[in-house]
Amino acid sequence: MSKESEPLYISTTLTVIACFLMGFIDAYTFLQQDEVFVSAQTGNLISLSAKLFSGEWRETSSHIWSFVGFAIGAFVGEAVLDRYQKKGMKRYSYYLLIQTILLLALALFQQRIIGGVMLFSLGLLAGYELTIFRKFRGTAVNNGIMTGNTKNLMGHLYQLILKRDSAAKTHLTNLSAIILIFVLGAGVGTLTIQFYTVYHLWGAFLISLIAFTWSAIHPTLSAK
User: Which of 4, 54, 87, 156 could form a cystine bridge with 91, CB 3.0-4.6 A?
Assistant: First the structure.
């Protein structure tokens, strides 16, 4: 692999892991936390509004926690990007360390954490992930929001079929891969919950830990 292609390879690998992780976690919050999505905030806000205007205002708190967490997570993500942008490729290790520590804390104390705090924390993680990891082989993607990915996929399909734009084929393939990875993550997450719910957050932590370990030992990422 050439030196020029290493940054693209690294960002793509980490975005794939983030996308799988977001599908994995969304399965958990939907099935175990009042059918809330922590990454798909459009659906979350629709559920919030529907419950609010139908008089079920007491049921809106879980959606509010998720939304506030996501917003703060995106803000924190921007701050982290700004803080570590001068660290070169090593910055990815810092990004992954932060999320790994958060997931470890959630896994350790999951049976003591109330639903609102859990949704806030996972929403924060989703906003953070969406801000940090967003490149797949040169294509800008949303690792947890498939609405935008699907819209962009269809746009590139149009460009490929009707405009004969050869570059659109690459983006079409990349976006299709991201959607499939997210679906796979949600599917594996569902199976994990059906097997034993407590294992789910430990599984999310393990995924993040593997990514962090890989970044720590990768020659390009670990170089000063």
Answer: 87
Torsion, CA 131, CA 133, CA 126, CA 218, rounded to 10: -130
| Structural domain boundaries, residue 117 | 6-219
Model confidence over 75-94: pLDDT tens digits? Answer: 999 999 988 888 777 888 88
The predicted-structure confidence for 139-156, as pLDDT tens digits, reads as follows: 888 888 888 899 999 999
The token pair at 75 is 């803000």
Q: What is the pTM of this model?
A: 0.90
Query: What does the alpha-carbon distance between residue 188 and residue 185 come to, in Å, rounded to a whole number?
Result: 5
204 occurs within a structural domain: yes
Instruction: Return the percentage of the chain with pLDDT > 70, whole number.
Output: 95
Number of domains in the chain: 1
Question: Does the pLDDT value for residue 57 go beyond 90?
Answer: no
Residue 91 in domain: yes
Phi, psi of 139 (to 5 degrees): -100, 130
Assigned domain for 95 exists: yes
Q: Are strands 139-140 and 135-136 parallel, antiparallel or unpaired?
A: antiparallel
For residue 149, give Cα distances in angstroms to 20, 139, 144, 209. 14, 10, 9, 27
